[in-house]
Amino acid sequence: MKTSIDELLAQTGVPLKDTIYTLSEDPVNRAPITAGNFFCLESSEKWQKNSWIQSRFQERLREKKRQDPTYQRLLEMLAEIKEDIAQIKAKDPKGYQHMPQLHNLRAVRHGLESSLEELTQYYQSELGQEFASVYGIHDRKLLVYKNTVCLGSFADLERQIPVLQKVELAWLRKIPLLLHHTDTLKKAVEEKIPIGLVGGPCLFGVYEMEIVVQHRDGQCFSFDFSSGRHYDQVRHNAYEFADHVEQCGGEIQSIHFRNWKRGVTSQEHDSLEVLFAVGTVLHAKVAIPIPDLSYLKYLSTVTASLEPSFRAAVLEEFRVEAHRIADLYLERIEQLKRRYPEVEVRVLHDRDREACEEFYTQREKFFQNSGLIHRLTAKREKTDAIFDYISMLALPYYFWKTPQVVQIDNLDETDSYRKCKKVHKGAFDLTAVLYPEKISADGELTIFNAPLKYKEYT
């Protein structure tokens, strides 16, 4: 479903002026968002804990103060009075010799501070009509995705964390972002708490890896690995590869893979570069999981019923293709390292056994609650792979014990974000900065879902 902030608001019938998006740039409100029907309009008062909403108010308050000559003159006078008091105290620490003078200066200081406070209250009252939701006078609305992340923009992050203004990625400022727990990131930046970033691309998208199944009677079936569905029915949710193996395993003579992926798409490149760009500005360490190991686990589970030697050959053939794709990302990561040399990066992938071992060892204690694990997914054939996706978001904590982790990823990872927080509750603070996937050259599908001719390889 392709939509936008403007379209989502139109569907609710709530005017733009009654939402926080009246303050967003028009291009952001019109930018395409491809997602399921999981948005709801909520009271912004309910989501006040997401202090990026309050930061809008505070920024406008500071702006009013800067633009008011009266306020600025009072500030200057207060600074002069404080300087006079400081000079007297430097000469006469206990103030015995200058008591009358100090008394008068302190009275003036108190008067100036009271005047400044009165002006501040006046500004707050004025802004209350525009930002009343901050104080609950009038209710403003905001859009929430999967009851977890709030639709906002990079401008919201910049208001809350000004150093992010140094990020030089124009596309980030033209699209909506889905944000959650950015207040902990703000605190980490202000208090110089170590920060770790995590994110990156999937191994491949739809149409890029074809599974070709040959039966003993000559019948041939092709499936898309990413969607699992029969190639003739990619747009229809029917007849998946896993079901075919389960129902026809004894009839299968061969399984081969056709790797159609010709390079890194623009979406995949952006998902890597944004980690480096933000990491440079925040002085953060970056962890990038390449999920070839997870795709191998999924294939291993799906083919578990096949004859062992046949199954081993199938897994090995796919491993070769998965590693070829992983090499595309590893090469691009090396290029980005040269462009952003300040960033410390560690990549998790199937052939880095040391990183894999550390990954599995560090996460073990968090996945010992069998009741919690059972609730994480109903897709039993994907259990191991899903555990990977949930725990990969904790890589900066596993690798470096960073107390603040920021997931910078696409909105499809909202569920893994929520589940990662649940599994690792209390171990570290996790912030979400999620972006919609880019629309392909066909103008409708995302690059991930688009046919090969619209993939936009870079």
Topology of this structure?
Blueprint: E1 2-3, H1 5-12, H2 26-30, E2 33-34, E3 39-43, H3 52-67, H4 69-91, H5 99-130, E4 141-145, E5 149-153, H6 154-160, E6 176-180, H7 182-190, E7 195-198, E8 209-215, E9 220-224, H8 241-248, E10 252-259, H9 266-282, E11 285-289, H10 292-302, H11 308-339, E12 345-348, H12 353-363, H13 370-376, H14 383-392, H15 395-400, E13 404-410, H16 414-423, E14 429-435
Parallel strand pairs: 7-11, 7-13, 11-12, 13-14
Antiparallel strand pairs: 1-2, 3-4, 4-5, 5-6, 6-14, 8-9, 8-10
Helix pairs in contact: 3-5, 3-6, 4-5, 9-11, 10-11, 10-14, 14-16
Query: Helix count?
Result: 16
> What would you give as the CATH superfamily of the domain at 197-208 and 260-454?
HUPs
Question: Mind describing the biggest β-sheet?
Answer: 9 strands, mixed
Shape: elongated
Structural class: alpha/beta
Distance between the termini: 26 Å
**Which percent range describes the beta-strand content?**
15-25%
CATH domain topology of the domain at 197-208 and 260-454: Rossmann fold
Counted beta strands: 14
CATH class of the domain at 197-208 and 260-454: Alpha Beta
Helices and strands, in N-to-C order? EHHEEHHHEEHEHEEEHEHEHHEHHHHEHE
Strand order of the largest sheet: 3-4-5-6-14-13-7-11-12
Overall average pLDDT: 87
Assign the CATH architecture of the domain at 197-208 and 260-454. Answer: 3-Layer(aba) Sandwich
> What is the oligomer described by this structure?
single chain
| Rounded Rg | 27 Å
Low-confidence stretches: 133-138, 234-238
> What is the share of helical residues?
40-55%
